[in-house]
Sequence to fold (736 residues):
Amino acid sequence: MNVNNKHYRTIWINEKSPKTVRIIDQRGLPNKFIVETINSVEQMAVAISDMHLRGAGLIGVAGAFGMYLAVLEASRGNSFDKRLKAFADRLQRTRPTAINLTWAIQRQLNAIRNVHSMADKINTSLETAHLIANEDIASCLEIGKHGFSLLKKIASRKKKGPLNILTHCNAGWLAFVDYGTATAPIYLAHEKGLNLHVWVDETRPRNQGSKLTAWELQQHGVPHTVIADNTGGHLMQQGLVDVVIVGSDRVTADGHVTNKIGTYLKALAAHDNGVPFYAAFPSSTFDWKTKNMRDIPIEERDPREVKMIEGWRNNKQVEVALTPKNSPAANYGFDTTPNRLVTGLLTERGLCNANRKSIARLFPQHGA
Amino acid sequence: MNVNNKHYRTIWINEKSPKTVRIIDQRGLPNKFIVETINSVEQMAVAISDMHLRGAGLIGVAGAFGMYLAVLEASRGNSFDKRLKAFADRLQRTRPTAINLTWAIQRQLNAIRNVHSMADKINTSLETAHLIANEDIASCLEIGKHGFSLLKKIASRKKKGPLNILTHCNAGWLAFVDYGTATAPIYLAHEKGLNLHVWVDETRPRNQGSKLTAWELQQHGVPHTVIADNTGGHLMQQGLVDVVIVGSDRVTADGHVTNKIGTYLKALAAHDNGVPFYAAFPSSTFDWKTKNMRDIPIEERDPREVKMIEGWRNNKQVEVALTPKNSPAANYGFDTTPNRLVTGLLTERGLCNANRKSIARLFPQHGA
Fold:
């Protein structure tokens, strides 16, 4: 998407030094647009765990580029396989909930395994990283098309006013390589002239909504309003939300949706008010193995992210305290919305219901 | 309650100058404890609307003391009745949702109406303000006793671990004159040695939870953990919440509960997970007239409260921006939880169900 009218992806190979990777360091947004050069696996691991970049798809693609850097680093010395495995483990440990990370790292390991010369291993891992990035983009585009049909249908039932969409966190292009998932239908609909307006949940504690989604939409000229996470239920009671679309970090074969903490509360409110609730994600987000939604690991992050907040003052990024010094805090990163609250799943293959049968019909290779 | 081991109320007549009122200016908490002297009706109106003080009960008591200042000011000149009415209107307009404000101002007007000499009017309004403050304290104490019985009962069903209570916003002593409503049972239970722990919703956008409730509990030594508002649903899914207790700003005769924005989302989650959900409030919070919960006025506040946040840095209070400069924001102050999601109402007269019949049994003078 465009930043100050120049096209960007969120991650790419450094044109000047192709053995390094460049990413948008999202920590400066919405006020500063920073590009960071990643020179090592360790630097990529820190970028993922400290959230220089984040988002379901982008974490996976960053894992894939991280594995390219891992092959490069492991190739400069002995014990290639052992060191590569250690690098893979290091990357894997950065974010436990995002299934795309596991998926991308495993795909890289599989791709490299049967390649023999070191030069070929390097080339294969670079190609695989590019492939994963391009597939991410293609999936987002397809999700956009399927989602746009859906939005048009919902909008056609409205008598007047814009189509009001509520979203939580950032499942925008900053969470992927381009376009995003929850936002792809929005960008497409906006481009095609559909009258729409987006309610942006600020998404505490890290404010990906107020800092990233609002910035994306504003850069793109999409009408939107930032709200506290507490607000969505009231808006739905008042008929001010026509549809909820969120992204996802992991979806089980039964259609249970793990996403940013607070998503479950919005799904409950949508269900209570007859508002359709959709999760949009590429199929790499499916966790085909986990049966019980209680077995999905939920990341617990540093309580400091709840006790402190970063914002901008006089063009400087400043961190301030929000709680008494001695009050403990807890910081769960995700929650799981049970399939009974999910109206539908939007993937690159189209829309399906949030149940095993309907998902298996769209993805028959994974069985029912 | 105690602040640094000295007992305070949230509002009182200035010992040194009894024609002025003193309040705890809550805007400095949790880092600075500030007492403000209120010399005029206008100053009290600003203190209420700009939230130097806030909270269902305290807004009412502040309105009552504001009316005492109004009688004093109106008595110094002509057109007493006309000026008193204007002062009452000024105070009334400060916060539209809180029913206690209307109730307290009206009670003062009724008390003063049949008193003839100016000196008696002044005395009567001062006495009425004291009476309303003392009734607020007595109600909170009674709510504490009834609520403690309830907590003991819920705790007795637990096999191990502390009783986990979740609360939203601040219905603590800072929201009343003393003890609070949602917190009164907690303080009493803590005093009696019940093993308990409180999940404190930070309560965006004004963070009354992380700034006020956490501070109260910490000053009092009650175990607690601050969480983002998004977290409660996940905690309930995990069995980490035994009971939810919130305050209320307005309750209809049918038991619909208007409280801080986001309360409805917690009630939905509690209902979905079989967690009991209680609203605690003095009976002055009842709105006996409004039939349809959609007719309850929901205050919309300055969007700036969503776009900016105040916190502490190097012992200074600092405001930082959280959104892109050009992104609009909306700031609804309250939402209404329908009675079907409310397990019970805790008032000074005891516990009742959230329906017209059960409420009328406890408050027969208002009819069914």
Remarks:
- The longest strand of chain B covers residues 196-201.
- Residues 297 and 326 of chain B are 28 Å apart (CA to CA).
- Chain B touches chain A through 62 residues (CB under 8 Å).
